[in-house]
Design goal:
By secondary structure, the protein is of the alpha+beta class. The protein is built from 15 helices and six strands. Helix 3 packs antiparallel against helix 9.
Length: 367
């Protein structure tokens, strides 16, 4: 039971708003569907929540549908090849999520008979599931009274209570408010309603306060400017790192690729040979660092912004009349037809590097 006080508004106006204005999403059971007895699929809820972390709804939709088409059940995903999962994820970013997705599916299949645990504690025991995902799946898939707080919910709560403590220090206080506000009835719909409210009404800029179901209770609207919330600590300037990438193309239209180490940034993903840049250290940028001798030609620089740093890669291309034997040891190298690049687990930065050296590479692959 949720206790409503002067400090804790009722969830009913929000749920009434959600019944009328909810977003139709491919992983969601709408209020109308629920009325007809349709139950949420924990696999779909979990898959969508993992994909949506630090990624937009529009970006996730095609990936979600592609995953479901290939692996309609969690046991199908558990049995899939790692390389296939990484390739299907390529372009969605934050690749540790894909590795953990596979590990979690395997744990559900092997340790839980293909059935997800139905409590926050049980869900958090699975690989790659933290506090947020456990709360979201528990609430949305199993109707548990869990406090779900993503970026949209943080914004709503910070404005509703005019929380002046900057993020991330304010998160514990915000979560406590969400816990008080979450009703025992329809907690899953409440969590999704809060997300929808932040995405469509309580937006970062120019929020539509006149349409908000919480407008009469919102402290930021009453006493301040909602756009001032949430308060954020000053951002540190991102460091710039440098490195080089080497695109070797054979006479028969193949490109040299290799697999990155499983741990670390872009772990387990496919790349062209690069120098040893990291988030903390620069790599060599000249052709002297190439994987083998060839007539390397400069193809400019590509820039990619990661969460904690900006990477500037100098791109080098060489036409190889005779292919050197791949190194099948630590780097796990191989020659791949350019026409098959779309099927590879290439992160966005590597697609940029290849496109700089071979401008039509991915158009050729699609054709």
């Amino acid at each position: 039971m949720t206790i409503t006080t002067l400090d804790t508004p009722s969830a009913k106006p929000l749920l009434d708003w959600y019944d009328r204005h909810h977003r139709d999403l491919p992983w969601r059971i709408s209020p109308g569907m629920a009325t007809r007895g349709v139950k949420p699929d924990p696999y779909r809820v979990w898959l969508s929540e993992v994909m949506l972390q630090q990624t937009t709804v529009q970006a996730v939709k095609p990936y979600f549908e592609k995953f479901l088409e290939r692996w309609p059940e969690v046991t199908d995903l558990a049995a899939a090849e790692n390389d296939a999962v990484m390739a299907a994820w390529a372009g969605l970013g934050y690749y540790a999520r894909a590795r953990n997705l596979k590990k979690c599916a395997e744990a559900v299949a092997k340790e839980h008979g293909g059935v997800f645990p139905d409590t926050e504690e049980g869900l958090k025991s699975l690989p790659g599931i933290g506090d947020y995902t456990a709360a979201a799946v528990a609430a949305i898939a199993f109707n548990r009274q869990a406090a779900v707080m993503d970026g949209n919910v943080e914004r709503v709560i910070s404005r509703l209570y005019a929380i002046e403590t900057p993020l991330p220090a304010a998160k514990p206080a915000m979560k406590a408010k969400v816990a008080l506000l979450t009703p025992s009835g329809r907690p899953g719909d409440f969590a999704q309603a809060m997300m929808d409210l932040g995405a469509t009404i309580c937006t970062p800029k120019r929020p539509a306060c006149s349409l908000c179901p919480f407008r009469n209770a919102c402290q930021a609207l009453k006493h301040s400017d909602p756009e001032l919330f949430p308060v954020k600590a000053a951002k540190k300037e991102k460091p710039v790192r440098h490195g080089a990438a080497f695109v070797a193309v054979s006479g028969d239209g193949e490109i040299l690729l290799r697999r990155r180490a499983e741990s670390g940034l872009l772990g387990g993903m496919t790349e062209v040979p690069t120098t040893a840049w990291t988030a903390r250290l620069d790599g060599e940028t000249s052709s002297a660092a190439a994987p083998f001798e060839a007539a390397w030609q400069a193809c400019g620089t590509v820039i990619h912004v990661f969460t904690h740093f900006e990477l500037r890669l100098s791109i080098w291309r060489a036409a190889i009349p005779a292919k050197p034997k791949p190194n099948d040891g630590v780097n796990d190298e191989w020659w791949e037809p350019v026409t098959n690049l779309e099927a590879q687990a290439l992160p966005t930065i590597m697609k940029k590097a290849i496109a700089a050296a071979i401008p039509l590479a991915f158009k050729t692959a699609k054709a």
